[in-house]
Design brief:
Number of domains: 1
Distance between the termini: 40 Å
CATH class: Alpha Beta
Oligomer: single chain
Pfam families: NTP_transf_3
Strand content: 15-25%
Subcellular location: Cytoplasm
Function: Transfers a GMP moiety from GTP to Mo-molybdopterin (Mo-MPT) cofactor (Moco or molybdenum cofactor) to form Mo-molybdopterin guanine dinucleotide (Mo-MGD) cofactor.
Largest sheet: 8 strands, mixed
CATH topology: Spore Coat Polysaccharide Biosynthesis Protein SpsA, Chain A
Helix content: 25-40%
Binding site for GTP: 8-10, 20, 67, 98
Keywords: Cytoplasm, GTP-binding, Magnesium, Metal-binding, Molybdenum cofactor biosynthesis, Nucleotide-binding, Nucleotidyltransferase, Transferase
CATH superfamily: Spore Coat Polysaccharide Biosynthesis Protein SpsA, Chain A
Order of helices and strands: EEEHEHEHEHEEEHHEH
């Protein structure tokens, strides 16, 4: 069972004002927290990002791609689809670049739940699904393509078309996105 980690770092970070992937927590770029959480658990890591991120953070042992041109700027579904199109695996563990409290225990819990009778393994924290920290089977490629063709870019649209296994998780901090400077100052300092 080949598993690829996908780190989504292609967003425009409008609310944050600069690329969140490069924001620092304890002197380390946010993007590295996602990469390090995935690294011991997956076979390969694909980072979906604009070239400017790659130039500023030239990581070794990862694969860098950009969104497929026709879907550039269309959100997380475009990034996931672009990675699946270029790198085949059975399962893909998706992480955003703006969760600097993520850790490998969360990723291990996801991978332990792999079950080929489901299309997606998605955590639920305090009643909220977390589709951007989830595990997707290769089969979702066609479902994502259909969403993109219909210009349906919401992750929940995809989830509603999938056979989803929900995993209850109680630890909230690893799932926290840092989207604004206010959140950054509150949680990072």
């Amino acid at each position: 069972m080949k598993t690829i980690g996908i780190v989504l770092a292609g967003g425009q970070s409008k609310r944050f004002g600069e690329p969140k992937a490069l924001a620092l927590r304890r002197g380390k770029p946010f993007l590295l927290y996602s990469v390090e959480a995935l690294h011991p658990i997956v076979d390969e890591i694909v980072i979906v990002a604009q070239r400017c991120i790659q130039k500023k953070l030239p990581l070794q042992d990862v694969l860098w791609i950009e969104d497929e041109p026709q879907y550039k700027g269309k959100g997380p579904l475009a990034g996931i689809y672009s990675a699946i199109v270029h790198h085949e695996a059975t399962w893909y563990i998706v992480l955003p670049c703006d969760t600097p409290f993520i850790h490998k225990k969360i990723i291990n819990k996801l991978k332990e739940q792999a079950d080929d009778s489901f299309d997606v393994i998605v955590p639920r924290v305090n009643g909220r699904l977390q589709p951007l920290i989830a595990m997707y089977h290769y089969r979702v490629k066609s479902l994502i393509y259909n969403c993109l063709q219909r210009e349906e870019y919401r992750m929940h649209t995809l989830l509603s078309a999938c056979r989803a296994k929900h995993i209850e998780m109680t630890e909230e901090l690893p799932f926290m996105n840092i989207n604004t400077k206010e959140q950054f100052h509150k949680w990072i300092g």
